[in-house]
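Schema walkthrough. Field components (list of strings):
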Amino acid sequence: MKRVRTKIWGAMLAILALVTSCSDDGVSELYFVGDSLVAGWDVKSSFPTYLTHNDGVSGARIEDILTWNLNYRDKNVVMLIGTNNLGGELLNEETRPRFIADFVAEYRHTIETLAPRRVFVLSILPRNFEGDDEFFNTCIEELNTALAQMVASLGYGVFVDVYDSFLYEGALNMNYSLDGLHLNNLGYNILNVRLSKEL
Amino acid sequence: MKTRHLLLLLAALLSWNSWAQTDSLSTKSIYVGLRNNEYACIGFQSGSWSVGLENTLWTRTPKEQYIRATGGYRLNTGLWNVIFSADAFAGVNYAGRFYDGSLKVGLDKTLGRFSFGAGAMALYDSEMGYNTCYTVHAGCRIIQEASIVVNFTNIPEYRMPEHRIVPGLLFRARKLWVRPELSIPLNDNIHFTRVLLSFRYDFLLKSPK
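Field assembly_structure (string):
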């Protein structure tokens, strides 16, 4: 019996030694910032081996973030925001280019001011909200394309394009949503999987 | 790295397991189970002592898995039949990003169909630093096989301490116990309520005397 115990301890310690000998410079702390989609995300249980901070605020727009006195310098930040900025200016063909340019510029300014070590920008999700224009999601696609180009030009950013994962017949897949805007657990599970692959 | 190995070795040698609160088996057994939906465990119990290993189940990337050596010791103090328990763990992330360890001591008392107890945990995480955690718990046996339980605690369900109230049920049937719980945050974030499930099954190695 004593020999068996010794072997069990030996095996256990060997496993511990093996796993600790691997080293990785990956991210350790993750700061999540954005609107209600972030505020409703249980990031602690979704990323159980990270130190997570949820700075999501319901109804937030991109320009609100810099008013919150966040200290993200040299931190790893996940951003999901933008749906509350969308409206008539995006839908109107004449004002759309200007709106997209301004939105992306504001997004870039926000990231550069926060000065994170790495930023993971999640694409704006499609919508299926009551009263939404049919054309809304096509415009969001266009906005995401511009957002992806901006993030690529940052050098320290990763654009996580989850738009198609949530799309069904041109709108937000209601299997993943509570109300056509906010996500249910299945929806958050998609975000968890897609983001995990990038971390 | 040598310091880390030494710490892990010390913690593993001192380690006790946290299942003691709901386990009354006194024979030798090998057990398997699940803790808080997330951690699969296997271990060995001999009388008051137990040691085990836990590993994350659902973490999505292999390098983000986490392994933990756990253990526990229980002692009837002889003073009003109060049970003293000591539990410890030492854990590490596969990628080597962090390691953590803890030592927890507690006292538990059963009075008829009621049981209650409290404990304090010294928790160290290589990135978070030191934290003192607490647990205050109570239970009421409804029938032989089922009890209502409730726990006020900030002991991490995953990695970070969170103040929570955790009501639940504890079902016991011979070598199996199952514990479904609702973990409710003690702040405004009520929407981060979690449904937790833990269970343990013992394979007996020796018949009771």
